[in-house]
Specification:
Elements (H helix, E strand, L loop, with lengths): L1 E6 L2 E4 L4 E9 L5 E8 L6 E7 L4 E3 L7 E6 L4 E6 L8 E9 L4 E4 L3 E6 L1
Parallel strand pairs: 2-11
Antiparallel strand pairs: 1-3, 3-8, 4-5, 4-9, 5-6, 7-8, 9-10, 9-11
Length: about 120
């Protein structure tokens, strides 16, 4: 089984920064993608950023230039550095692992990020 444990959420003022971390454990294949999704109240869950095991990245347009995703593959950990935060970034952020060639999805429990204006 695979377990994802997130940390780093919290309350920050607009313009501030937060760093999210997600540690994966269990049966993790060398081919995978790790990333972050978010879900605001009343909205669908959306991709924020994702990075594959071969180094490709994809960001939501709304966070490009402000958020940076990185990985430590030795520790199966993914990070999301969030700068210049805006109130519209307020959401529950979920860590995601797409495991193996078939990309089976695993999710973390979610961490709240609240940006005050």
């Amino acid at each position: 089984q695979v377990q994802l444990v997130e940390s780093g959420g919290g309350l920050v003022q607009a313009g501030g920064s937060l760093r999210l971390s997600c540690a994966a454990s269990g049966s993790i294949f060398s081919i995978n993608a790790m990333g972050w999704y978010r879900q605001a109240p009343g909205k669908q869950r959306e991709l924020v950023a994702i990075k594959t095991s071969d180094g490709r990245t994809n960001y939501a347009d709304s966070v490009k230039g402000r958020f940076t995703i990185s990985r430590n593959d030795r520790e199966n950990t993914v990070y999301l550095q969030m700068n210049s935060l805006k109130p519209e970034d307020t959401a529950v952020y979920y860590c995601n692992l797409k495991n193996g060639f078939r990309g089976r999805d695993y999710w973390g429990q979610g961490t709240q990020v609240t940006v005050s204006s």
